[in-house]
Amino acid sequence: MFAPLHGRGYDGSARLAVGATFVLLALAGCGGNPQAPVTLTQQAASPVSSDVSQASGSAASAQDDPDRAPVIGATHDTVTTAGHYLAARQALYFNDVGQSADFFLRTLEDDASNVALLRQAFLTQYYYGDIEQAAALGRQLEGLNVVVPLGGEPATALALRNADWPASIVLADRIAEDGQALAMAGVIRGWSLVAAGQGDAGISALLEAGRMSIDVNSGMPPFFRLHAALMAERLGLVNEALQRVTGLEADSLPSHVALDLAAFYARQQKWDIVDRLIDTQLSRQFNQTDVRAALEQGARELPAIQQHIAAAVVALALSDNKNSGQSLAARLRFALFVDDDHHFARLLLAQQLSDYGQADIALANLERIPDGGMFGQLARLAESAVVEEAGDSERSISLMKAVADRDPGNAYLFHRLGDTYRRNSMFRQSRDAYMASLALGRDTGGLHRSLGVSLERLGETQAAETHLLRAIEIDPGDAYALNYLGYWWADEGRKLDQAIAMIERAVSHRPSSGFFVDSLGWVHYKLGDPARAVGYLERATELEPSDPEITGHLGDVYWALGRREEAMFKWRLALTLSDDAEEQALLERRLRTGLTPEEMPGSN
Question: How far is CA 304 from CA 210, 338, 520, 532, in A?
Fold first, then answer.
């Protein structure tokens, strides 16, 4: 009954939303929001390409390493120094840091004293994840008295992994030379002092870093209090540790911080607080049974100091809104080099890789996060989204079903499974999954809207209206539900005043959505007012210039207004944009005969 636009336009993407916009999940934002989509960070994603290992030989060719991406820059003559440099720049342009890192190194072979090349090679190796190579380049730059952002970090990561605490203390001071990394330097220095037997000095260094990170609105990031407690715990000062985090569980915490706090309380056998943290701070993307079991197992021994440092570096990077996406990528690489089993950092890294088109490498990282544990369920959800985005809907559905089967009481998962079915036009299965979610107690506007869409597609129109209206009742600003129901009513000539008002509300909430603006214009056209419709449809084509249906709609309106040449131009353009056979046939007929009398506005 609807034009394809109005089924597609409201929720067509399978992406995790991890890349450019980061509509936040409970992972890097605050926990406990059961409606949050699977998204991983607030930071802008960086252009990263890497194989799964954290310290591989960076100069290996793509042909020698099956995990590496194709050599995007290989169209250049890379026999020459200039060719390697151009290839490196082109690879960066295409967000392939791995290939860029290789090409910059090859450029240096013929121009080893070029400081600008050294700086660029250092940065790309660090972003790429070859910490050892980056550390070597950093030493070269230091020998030339060249200061580069992040310059001391790879060498520090090496010292930390080797538990060389005196070197880590010295290198933390070098990190502090970068004014943007003072807090990170303080965290590393603090933990290194604790490891070296200088506990009081370590806690003081940590808290000084915390004071430098105080925000006028939110105060000191909560993980500083947590890590001060973890240091006291390490020193055997359990009462002091408990005092330092008293009441912290009642704050709104990022879920990775909440999990570290829960692990601390688990070691103290404070299981009532552990359960409260799991229940109130974690979104339903987590398998709470698995999380509890992992906390019980981890309560038997103290984590290694490297694990604490890796967690602190990631938490600090996520809390700093001034961090660029590339800085975040570097800190994730740092954390994984220091603690290869930091599954949260690997999850974030996979998100970034996926967002920049490195799906295979993203999946290889996700597969290293085992089922069960803290982040196993999130890794499987992320895998499902990545493979769906890559076009493998069958595997995506299989992964989602396996997750739901493993956590059968989790209403959120059945909502997600229903979304996956719906995006693949499997409306009967999506309806059943949504109904299962409802039966488990989920009552969100998004669920009712999606169920309403599936029911309408199955011809269950009365039930569809009921759920769409319920979605709007729960969230009066749900532009998708307003647009869908308003267009439906207007298309059938029912409740026209309400229908147009709904679409206008949708447009007011999402004025930059070409799909919604198109709906408003198309309804006015269908109701016999092409003069009023044309402005909306021209605006819609500006917002969505590559959508063939919107472009075709504008052609129809131009024809109805007697602007025949402009109509033919828009139909021809729509034909070049379309890859749908039925739509192409319609446009070809339009180009031969124009609109028939029955297709003119107001004819029905």
Answer: 22, 11, 59, 68
Per-residue pLDDT tens digits for 55-105: 333 333 333 333 333 333 333 344 444 444 444 344 444 444 444 444 444
Determine the residue type at 63: Q
Determine which helix (DSSP H) or strand (DSSP E) holds 585, and give its type and residue range.
helix 581-593
Provide the angle, in degrees to the nearest 10, between the axes of the packed helices 115-128 and 131-143: 160
Question: What domains can be seen in the chain, in order of their start residue?
Answer: 502-604 (1.25.40.10)
Q: 572-576 long-range CB contacts below 8 Å, 24 or more apart?
A: 574/548, 574/549, 575/548
Name the residue type at position 198. Q
Inter-residue contact 8 to 544 (CB < 8 Å):
no
Q: What is the pLDDT of residue 259?
A: 97
C-beta of residue 172 within 8 angstroms of C-beta of residue 189: yes
**Residue pLDDT, tens place only, 173-211:** 888 887 778 899 999 999 999 999 999 999 999 999 998
Q: Is the pLDDT of residue 590 over 90?
A: yes
Q: What CA–CA distance (Å, rounded) separates 185 from 178?
A: 9
What tens digit of pLDDT does each residue of 96-122 get?
444 444 444 445 545 555 666 677 677
Token readout for 405 is 């089967």
The sign of the CA dihedral 278, 283, 288, 291 is: negative
DSSP reduced 3-state for 573:
helix
Task: Identify the DSSP state of 219.
Answer: B
Contacts of range 400-405, beta carbons closer than 8 Å, 24 or more positions apart? 403/377, 404/433
Residue pair 31/258 in contact (Cβ under 8 Å)? The answer is yes
pTM of the model: 0.79
Phi, psi angle pair for 254, to nearest 5°: -60, 145
In this structure, are residues 365 and 346 in contact, taking their beta carbons and an 8 Å threshold? yes
No. of H helices and E strands in the chain? 31, 0
pLDDT reported for residue 527:
87
Q: Of 522, 474, 480, 521, nearest to 502 (Cα)?
A: 480
